[in-house]
UniProtKB/TrEMBL annotation:
Name recorded for this polypeptide: Dehydrogenase/reductase SDR family member 6
Compartment(s): Cytoplasm
Entry keyword annotation includes NADP: no
One GO location term (cellular component): cytoplasm
GO molecular function, one term: 3-hydroxybutyrate dehydrogenase activity
PANTHER family: DEHYDROGENASE_REDUCTASE SDR FAMILY MEMBER 6, DIHYDROANTICAPSIN 7-DEHYDROGENASE
Gene (name only): bdh2
One Gene Ontology biological process: lipid metabolic process
Cited SUPFAM superfamilies: NAD(P)-binding Rossmann-fold domains (SSF51735)
Length: 250
């Protein structure tokens, strides 16, 4: 018996990083997983894993999100992972950067929640997990202006949904990791003028001496997706990085 036996889970950004690790972890625990991403080639790497089906979806497009929702009679867990990290202060952030980040990091979650929440309400049972970050309303981080702003909005969205629908059987939590070692992070490091120094700078901020892994975040998401969390989380005490923590209804 898996911890997620019989549960139907839909998640975004499943082609790599946290989304990929979570999709695999969900499936190993017995869930039926629909793994979506805009990167069809990377998404194919999940094909053949028992319990996972894949679909190319751009979660910033309302028509594609609504079509995805129509393919599911019901969904037990919605995990919103899709996101983009912009590097820079407010002076480095052009309007296009702001719009792209907010569209990817916040509007996509709005679209997904709005499309799937009615299915959960019809069953009076559902579970939404949103990917936020320590870089948000929790902590100011250098050169993460619009990213931190978007993740603060995710925390606000999560608390709002939790407050509005907890009495109707809906749980809504967000996960707030520190620096996670993912292909996205490695790519951003390599894009810097001095990748070796950029890596050292990242590591210098890790009080535990290492970065969090995508698998560690996925373990927490398995717990949040399970019935072990019966009414949602209030506030889990903050742990030093790299351990992720969650925020739920206040």
């Amino acid at each position: 018996m898996g911890r997620l036996d019989g549960k139907v889970i839909v998640l975004s950004a499943a082609a790599q990083g946290i989304g990929r690790a979570a999709a695999i972890a969900f499936a190993k625990e017995g869930a039926q997983v629909t793994a979506t991403d805009i990167n069809g080639e990377k998404l194919k790497e999940l094909e053949g894993i028992q319990g996972i089906k894949t679909k190319v979806v751009d979660v910033t497009k309302r028509d594609q999100v609504e079509a995805l929702a129509k393919e599911h009679d019901h969904v037990d867990v919605l995990f919103n992972v899709a996101g983009f990290v912009h590097h820079g202060s407010i002076l480095d952030c052009e309007e296009a950067d702001w719009d792209f980040t907010m569209n990817t990091n916040v509007r996509s979650m709005y679209l997904m929640c709005k499309a799937f929440l009615p299915k959960m309400l019809a069953k009076k049972s559902g579970n939404i997990i949103n990917m936020a970050s320590v870089a948000s309303s929790i902590k100011g981080v250098v050169n993460r202006c619009v990213y931190s702003t978007s993740k603060a909005a995710v925390i606000g969205l999560t608390k709002s949904i939790a407050a509005d629908f907890i009495e109707q059987g809906i749980r809504c939590n967000c996960v707030c990791p520190g620096t996670v070692d993912t292909p996205s992070l490695r790519g951003r490091i390599q894009a810097q003028p001095n990748p070796e120094q950029a890596y050292k700078d990242f590591m210098a901020r890790q009080k535990t001496g290492r970065m969090c892994t995508a698998e560690e975040v996925a373990y927490l998401c398995v717990y949040l997706a399970s019935d072990e969390v019966s009414v949602g989380i209030k506030h889990v005490p903050f742990f030093p990085l790299p351990h992720p923590f969650t925020l739920g209804p206040t």
